[in-house]
């Protein structure tokens, strides 16, 4: 009954798509459990590159069944566009299962995401503008619309009306915008629902049965630990739980079914949007990392903020997720550096912190305490055994492992599927 959770250990964009794809060929189900089309994975298969936002990376695998769990917020238009795009390139999406309990991102959520960000001014979060926060807010406020609501016109109209009642007052009176029409919104959602119907299922039941039958399920997290609404750098976070616990609530599978928790980390750190980032580099080094690592968002195209590896973040991720393995990606990006700094602790107002401060004012004031390791110049993309890496490269990885408090089981050495070093198997 292997239940494997795969999450981001930093601020997102760690290369989870590649890791999912790597183990996706050996699993029966790949289930997304949080977030929505704010995520973006690039999966490279042969010469083809796929940019996915909402669909689980397992959609590319010919054997796994892709699942969108109840914890995901689904923009029906985006999902259908993504399905059409893949089908036109010969990728069969008919196996997709969509939870009937997942919440819908309606057009008004996208409008609200943009206007509230503008209204926040200097306090803005730097969201992806996809309506994620407003859709989750409706879920918690109990005025959300779920997938199964799309199949009953009267019921849906009632729900849209309830949801828009207060929002239209806000849009008109506070944000100086036009009100959103209930009838038109209901009709649009009904049409989209018709097209989604073939994919809809009781995914909690499907996944539990699969696990009971000894099948392997990979639970794929969107975003990452430091963007978790509870455990991340609040308020500069997303509105869901991308940490390992979210895999259970976001799919309806109990914690006793989880056998592995794999965290994906870059060999350095990136972040998009606002919020504190202790190891951020502003000068030439930051530009160099961005250029070498092609650090531009898959979803928004925004340049990512870049910095050195932060071991405090990774230790924290090991702790809050209960990590069993780390997949270290993009090690090749660091090739050519004479020396590589690693942040081992923070100095906060002159005091050393080895652990993550929970007070966000302290985290915002944290200055990295660096240890410096020698770099390497050799091309590592064709190396497939850890022992064949340059000695300084091995030492760098070993030090990251020691500081993170979790073993590094896979190393990414380039963008292609076979650019990896596998130290431990990710499946029992
Ligand atoms: P939202 O999820 O669109 O509400 O954005 C909230 C914060 O999470 C912003 O800082 C976004 O840039 C960040 N964010 C959301 N999704 C991702 C992702 O997949 N990778 C990296 N950052 C993300």
Automatic annotation (TrEMBL):
Substrate binds at residues 298-304. GTP binds at residues 12-18, 40-42, 304, 330-332, 412-414. The active site is at 13 (proton acceptor), 41 (proton donor), 139. It catalyses: IMP + L-aspartate + GTP = N(6)-(1,2-dicarboxyethyl)-AMP + GDP + phosphate + 2 H(+). Mg(2+) binds at residues 13, 40. One of its GO terms (molecular function) is magnesium ion binding. Pathway: Purine metabolism; AMP biosynthesis via de novo pathway; AMP from IMP: step 1/2. PROSITE patterns: ADENYLOSUCCIN_SYN_1, ADENYLOSUCCIN_SYN_2. IMP binds at residues 13-16, 38-41, 128, 142, 223, 238, 302. It comes from the Bacteria. Keywords: Cytoplasm, GTP-binding, Ligase, Magnesium, Metal-binding, Nucleotide-binding, Purine biosynthesis. Its main location: cytoplasm. One of its GO terms (biological process) is 'de novo' AMP biosynthetic process. It is found in: Cytoplasm. Its EC number is 6.3.4.4. Binds 1 Mg(2+) ion per subunit. HAMAP family: Adenylosucc_synth. Belongs to the adenylosuccinate synthetase family. Plays an important role in the de novo pathway of purine nucleotide biosynthesis. Catalyzes the first committed step in the biosynthesis of AMP from IMP. This is Adenylosuccinate synthetase.
């Amino acid at each position: 009954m292997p239940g494997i959770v795969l999450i981001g250990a930093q601020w997102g964009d760690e290369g989870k798509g590649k890791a999912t794809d790597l183990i996706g060929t050996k699993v029966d189900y790949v289930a997304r459990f949080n977030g929505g089309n704010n995520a973006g994975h690039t999966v490279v298969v042969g010469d083809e590159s796929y940019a996915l936002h909402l669909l689980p990376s397992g959609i590319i695998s010919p054997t796994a069944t892709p699942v969108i769990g109840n914890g995901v917020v689904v923009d029906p238009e985006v999902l259908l566009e993504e399905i059409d795009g893949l089908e036109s390139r010969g990728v069969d999406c008919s196996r997709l299962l969509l939870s009937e309990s997942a919440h819908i991102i309606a057009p008004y959520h996208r409008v609200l995401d943009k206007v509230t960000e503008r209204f926040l001014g200097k306090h803005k979060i730097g969201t992806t503008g996809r309506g994620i926060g407003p859709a989750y807010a409706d879920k918690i406020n109990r005025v959300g619309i779920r997938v199964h609501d799309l199949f009953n016109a009267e019921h849906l109209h009632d729900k849209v009306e309830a949801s828009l009642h207060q929002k239209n007052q806000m849009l008109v009176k506070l944000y100086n915008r036009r009100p959103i029409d209930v009838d038109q919104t209901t009709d649009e959602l009904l049409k989209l629902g018709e097209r989604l119907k073939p994919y809809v299922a009781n995914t909690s039941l499907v996944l539990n049965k699969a696990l009971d039958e000894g099948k392997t399920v990979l639970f794929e997290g969107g975003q990452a630990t430091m963007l978790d609404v509870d455990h991340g750098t609040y308020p500069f976070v997303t509105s869901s739980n991308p940490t390992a616990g979210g895999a259970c609530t976001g799919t309806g599978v109990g914690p006793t079914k989880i056998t592995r928790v794999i965290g994906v980390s870059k060999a350095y750190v990136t972040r998009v949007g606002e919020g504190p980032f202790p190891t951020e580099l502003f000068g030439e080094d930051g530009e160099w990392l961005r250029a070498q690592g092609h650090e531009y968002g898959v979803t928004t195209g925004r340049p990512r903020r870049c910095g050195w590896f932060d071991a405090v973040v990774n230790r924290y991720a090991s702790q809050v997720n209960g990590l069993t393995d780390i997949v270290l990606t993009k090690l090749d990006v660091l090739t050519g550096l004479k020396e590589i700094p690693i942040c081992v602790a923070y100095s906060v107002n002159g005091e050393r912190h080895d652990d993550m401060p929970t007070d966000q004012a302290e985290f915002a004031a944290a200055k990295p305490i660096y240890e410096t390791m020698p770099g390497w110049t050799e091309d590592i993309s064709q190396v497939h055994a850890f022992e064949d890496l340059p000695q300084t490269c091995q030492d760098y990885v070993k030090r990251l492992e020691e500081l993170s408090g979790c073993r590094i089981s896979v190393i990414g050495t380039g963008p292609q599927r076979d650019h990896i070093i596998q130290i431990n198997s990710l499946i029992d």
